[in-house]
Design a protein that fits this description.
Helix 1 crosses helix 6, helix 4 (about 95-110) packs across helix 5 and helix 7 (about 240-255) packs across helix 8 (about 280-295). The chain starts with 5 loop residues before the first strand and ends in a 7-residue tail after the last helix. It is α/β, with parallel strands linked by helices. It folds into two domains: about 5-180, 3-Layer(aba) Sandwich (Rossmann fold); about 185-355, Argininosuccinate synthetase, chain A, domain 2 (Alpha-Beta Complex), CATH 3.90.1260.10. The longest helix is centred in the C-terminal third of the chain and has 20 residues, at about 295-315. The protein is built from twelve helices and 14 strands.
């Protein structure tokens, strides 16, 4: 491959800083950098001077925070998506948007290839490249980690030092964690985390207070829902990103959202990672609460059956696939009646539902569910026939008991 120009997904961290220089030297062509502000914080501010110092002339730094939460995070939470029972997909869901903008910037700048900093052992290479092939299949893709000999973080640090590329290190001078942050979460891999028996360093966590040290006084919040999405906190209407940012702050103060897991990567490797998803932890709990009173039983159960498939599609990089889009249409249709409010308590790492209500769409009928006199709203004698019909196959098969 001999592209005349390359668009690099550039974070300014160790990997992509080294990749930028390596691409320039290896392909002897201009490299365009694209940095997506997805809510990762102040590190975005340092990207431009780093790229300029390496001679980059076309630098794209874009505020995609609202688009990210509105068009990617919110649709995912409508599905209650969670991978392998614990992971809220914070890294996975950011990749489709980055892939889309890589393709669009390649169009705008006349680039023939795109590049990324994902390793050949991980999921992100799959997510980025499936996105590119789905959206602009004629583009070339350059994945340095699959071709170069800089196959360790120590070699990357040595390369950076040789070429005067500034890299942020830990205080002890060792290589930093492999970290990824956006408005939904921050992840940590590498270092002592590569031993699944070793607990993470207490100083590693950046977004959340240690639950033991969290405030001794709980806080209550009320989330307002429209069609499955949070639109307000304590009665104040907010944009999608504003909702998530505020929930991150509240949950982080109360030690909510830490997990330490070993997950199954798409490429077949088991990987240990630590994640902080404070606002997302609240969102999952609250969304299931509002659905509990607004969704029909069979619709709710069908969503639960489809959710692992949907979550796996996102984890494995198939956001732009026809099957994910088909599932999304079904999920979004189910959310039309998901309107109302959920009241929650935040306390020392826990989220507790205190109440849920929906003035217009609640299917909860206290007159029927009450243990007191329901005034004839429900005829209990009807249950006998219901039970006997459902027991029919069990009764017919009873004479076969003991044959096995």
């Amino acid at each position: 491959m001999s592209p005349s120009k390359i668009v690099l997904a550039y974070s300014g961290g160790l990997d992509t800083s080294v990749i930028l220089k390596w691409l320039q030297d290896t392909y002897n062509c201009p490299v365009v950098t694209f940095t997506a502000d997805l809510g990762q914080g102040e590190e975005v501010d340092a990207v431009r001077p780093k790229a300029e110092a390496l001679g980059v002339e076309e630098i794209f730094i874009e505020d995609l925070r609202e688009e990210y939460v509105r068009d990617y995070v919110w649709p995912m939470f409508r599905a209650n998506a969670i991978y392998e029972g614990e992971y809220l997909l914070g890294t996975s869901i950011a990749r489709p948007l980055i892939a889309k903008r890589l393709c669009q910037i390649a169009d705008e700048t006349g680039a023939g290839a795109v590049s990324h900093g994902a390793t050949g052992k991980g999921n992100d290479q799959v997510r980025f490249e499936l996105g590119v092939y789905a959206l602009k299949p004629e583009l070339g893709v350059i994945a340095p980690w699959r071709t170069w000999d800089l196959n360790s973080r120590e070699k990357l640090l040595a390369y950076a030092a040789e070429h005067n590329i500034p890299i942020k290190k830990k205080k002890d001078g060792g290589s930093p964690y492999s970290m990824d942050a956006n408005a939904l979460h921050i992840s940590y891999e590498g270092g002592e985390l590569e031993d699944p028996w070793t607990p993470p360093n207490k100083d590693m966590w950046l977004w959340t207070t240690d639950p033991i040290e969290a405030p001794d006084t709980p806080v209550e919040i009320t989330l307002g829902y429209e069609h499955g999405d949070v639109v307000s906190i304590d009665g104040e209407r907010l944009t999608p990103f504003q909702v998530l940012a505020q929930l991150n702050t509240l949950a982080g103060e109360h030690g909510i959202g830490r997990i330490d897991i070993v997950e199954n990567r798409y490429v077949g490797i088991k990987s240990r990672g630590c994640y902080e998803t404070p606002g997302g932890t609240i969102l999952l709990k609250a969304h299931r609460a509002i659905e509990s009173i607004t969704l029909d039983r069979e619709v709710a159960h069908m969503k639960d059956e489809l959710m692992p498939r949907y979550a796996k599609l996102i984890y494995n990089g198939y956001w732009w696939s026809p099957e994910r889009k088909l599932l999304q249409g079904l999920i979004d249709q189910s959310q039309k009646p998901v309107n109302g409010e959920v009241r929650l308590q935040l306390y020392k790492g826990n989220v507790t539902v205190l109440g849920r209500m929906s003035d217009s769409d609640s299917l909860f009928d206290a007159n029927i569910s009450t243990f007191e006199d329901d005034g004839g709203a429900y005829t209990q004698a009807d249950a006998e026939g219901f039970i006997k019909l459902n027991a029919l196959r069990l009764r017919l098969g009873a004479h076969l008991t003991g044959r096995d």
